[in-house]
Amino acid sequence: MNNIEKKQINNLIEISKQLRIDVVNIIHGAKSGHIGGSLGLADIFTALYFHVLNHNSNDPNWADRDRFVVSNGHVAPIYYTALAHSGYFPVSELSSLRKLRSRLQGHPNSLELPGVEISTGSLGQGLGVACGMALIAQKDKEDHLVYCSIGDGETQEGSIWEAAMFAGHRELSNLIAFTDRNYIQIDGNTEEINKLEPLAEKWKAFNWNVLSANGNDMEEILNAFEKAKKENSKPTMIIFNTKLGFPVSFMDGVSKWHGTAPNDKEAKSAIKEIEEYYLKLNL
Amino acid sequence: MKYIQENIFNNPKMLPTRDGFGKALVKLGEINEKIIVLTTDVAGSVRANWFAEKFPKRFFDLGIAEQNMISVATGISLENKIPFATTFGVFITGRVWDQIRVLVSYSQTNVKLVATHTGVTVGEDGATHQILEDIALMRVLPNMTVIVPSDFNETKKAIFAAADFKGPIYIRLGRQKAPLITTDDAPFEIGKSQKLRDGNDVTIVACGVLVYEALLAAEKLNKLGISARVLNMHTIKPLDVDSLLEAAKTTGAIVTAEEHQIAGGLGSAVAEVLSQQNPVPIEMIGINDEFGISGTSDQLLTYYGLRSDNIVGSVKKVLKRKR
Hints:
A: alpha/beta, Rossmann fold, five-stranded parallel beta sheet, 10 helices, B: 323 residues, alpha/beta, 11 helices
């Protein structure tokens, strides 16, 4: 790494551990929710909220903030956990996930929860919203960047490609999107259901700058975002290779864990595996 | 002050509502830097090209990608701008209903949706392009305001009002030339209907193109000794409940008239209120559960029974049911 020290990376990894444990606990408490993508994205969301994004939880609408649109709104548990630990609302509120009158709706609601730019949950809509934000920043020569998270299954939505074509055509180099490439959607493997490959080539063909990195490796994640920030003529798509439910072994590659809550026993063993994984990293 | 143009029955001035939209956008562009206009490969048809020529940096043609237009408009609205997203009625309602539902209505973003080419008066293009379900699709959405201007002048006022209004709004316009009914002086307020003609025996509640037919019908009824009130219900949502209840109380019978499916449109909205609060007899003029066909605007208004004579017929029917 150029300007980030090992100590900082280790610090981020420590944070990702807490986010993962919270994700398991709140989904277990809610008895429903999308655990696989939330765990798999924990490293990326940690990197964004605790290093990459220029943001201020005391002033969520700060005009110069980087925007972050979570198009795959079903990963709300990791989104909420990252927001809470960044100070957007009390960490104690996380346990209200999916409960009656909670601000933590099953899918994010921008009217209710500070830090959420736009309500999402119906797949394929957020990338276009990010395009609209990036378009205005480009037009008004604003310096902030617009980030957008999409799921790999979500990429099957036609509206993603409408937005992709638009961003490429408008040369929205201030737009950095990333794909959670875990190959798993509700009904099984993306390549068996409606194949996405060659995915990188598709984005390249739509005039995007395309990067790929291991989305469960903090150093690779930070490097990829650094590289994306330097792009000055095209929007960037980072294809982050991740594992569903990472680092919980019994969730890896099992589509049931896209959207099933763990029972008592499963939650316990998931947390045990998470703790063992971080212990082995020997930070 | 006069609210109705002179000579509207003999020799009305004919202007399309979409022209009023185009003119209003240019004016708005001059006075408000925040106005952004988006369309999908129909800039000339929706009259957004007039804005585009004057303010090229605030105009974006997204190509044939309507879903993306709603998403992009949402992103623009979040940046404290006022986006007007505009295309044909079929493409800005049914085609993108889920985008509108989540990003605009649920999220209460400040997106202005303007549909041109609505109803059977689209004409020759036929059923695929003659949206007859848009009022229903939009008024069922929470937080949505739905406006159907009756003419060119009212359209201009509705567009100005929409720019000042904070929140989601849908405005339904037409393609064809339509009689100019209202004057520049006629007031326009979102949610407040206009009593274009007073009467005691029956009230005709109309919107859009059918307001002119309603006025013609009232004139014909007058000659038959029937005194008909005409309400221009330009705002379908929120509905002007006070004026409606007052009309029901005073005249005791209602005829609704719209260029839209009877199911879910203005007639339904009126019936939802009156059936619960003052159930007077109602007859409804509109499209009766069918699709449009090709033809000229004039032919189709007659073919689908959307003329003043049809309204007169419905008035006679409703008066027989009146207690």
